[in-house]
Amino acid sequence: MDCALGGAGLIVVSPPFIALADVEKRFDDRRTGRTTQALAGLSLTVDEGEFVCLLGPSGCGKSTVLDLLAGFERPTQGRVTIGGQPVGRPDPDRGMVFQDATLFPWLSVLDNITFAPRLAGRPAADYRARAQELIDVMGLRGFERHAVYELSGGMRQRVAIARAWISQPLLLLMDEPFGALDAQTRLDMQELLLAARDRNRATVLFVTHDVEEALLLADRIAIMSHRPGRIVSELVVPYPRPRTYEEIIGTQQFGELKRSIVAMLRREAPTAAALPPADHGRV
Ligand SMILES: Nc1ncnc2c1ncn2[C@@H]1O[C@H](COP(=O)(O)OP(=O)(O)O)[C@@H](O)[C@H]1O
Ligand SMILES: [Mg+2]
Fold it and tell me: Can you give the pTM of this predicted structure?
């Protein structure tokens, strides 16, 4: 939250960029009559330009939080605001990247990346240079005209990020975007994301189940309870930027942070059977 000294000597506190206040989300299945309480009493704020990672056990409502911010869902109770305004319909100002690159398989790389501005009827001159820059940054040069079904998983994910990024979103919502990638590609993608984001200063809310990924990427990590999800713990990541995996991975502090986060997540995991091996950073 930003504070500044106002004209009359008053401390002016501007509201956080993103605020979820005491949010409840219930899904009512009319067909079966079943109700799922996904979120209850969830409060979280994110400042402009901040990179926050959301960690929590499977099914605790992480994707639901992103859906509320994207405008795909509405809270049953509580308030979800961006820039002080209740979230309305989905908007390219809020870019969403999912775990499986949800691209249009029959369209080319370039047509996927430029989908939003073309849909909005913007002239090509507005976005062509930016599209080319993104293609270069994402290592997709030479593949502009390829259909996306011809690409590897890592390349498809890069197209998905470029597609979200072309609208220069104020907020990027990322739902386990690198979860399906092999370790090397994931590391490349994490570094690309950090580099691109350092230039744009977008606000990022990033869901992951990988503790190391959260420590590499985030300014702050928010940990959710089991369902119905709420935030049970938040911690500030102490590493300065720019940071690389190699710089932080070997330090004693990294090991300690990782261990305490894994312990918190284990406490939230609903059953022991769902737990990973003890020394593993992914939960
Ligand atoms: N559209 C929906 N209709 C009914 N139940 C849903 C819907 N979306 C999510 N849920 C339920 O809400 C809970 C939280 O889901 P989700 O946000 O996807 O969790 P996470 O991303 O943490 O794994 C789950 O029990 C899920 O089945
Ligand atoms: Mg999810």
Answer: 0.88
Which residues have CB atoms below 5 A from the ion given as ligand 2? 63
d(CA 121, CA 233): 44
Confirm if 266 and 193 have CB atoms less than 8 A apart.
Answer: no
Long-range interactions of 273-282: CB distance < 8 A, separation 24+: 274/57, 274/58, 281/210, 281/211, 281/212, 282/209, 282/210, 282/211
- Ligand nearest to the Cα of 42, by number: 1
The fold adopted by the segment(s) 3-93+171-177+201-269 is Rossmann fold (3.40.50)
The residue contributing the CA closest to ligand 1 atom 12 is 38
Domain boundaries, the chain: 3-93+171-177+201-269
Q: For 140-154, how does the pLDDT look when each residue is reduced to its tens digit (9 = 90+)? A: 999 999 999 899 888
The per-residue pLDDT for range 228-241, each reduced to its tens digit, is: 999 999 999 999 99
pLDDT score of 237: 96
Candidates 22, 10, 173, 147; CA nearest to 94 is 173
The rounded distance, in Å, linking the Cα atoms of 167 and 126 is 11
The C-alpha atoms of residue 193 and residue 245 are separated, in whole angstroms, by 13
Q: Specify the residue with its C-alpha closest to ligand 1, atom 13.
A: 38
Low-confidence ranges of the chain (pLDDT < 50): 272-275, 277-283
Query: Is the CB–ligand 1 distance for residue 58 below 6 Å?
Result: yes
Q: What is the mean pLDDT of the chain?
A: 89
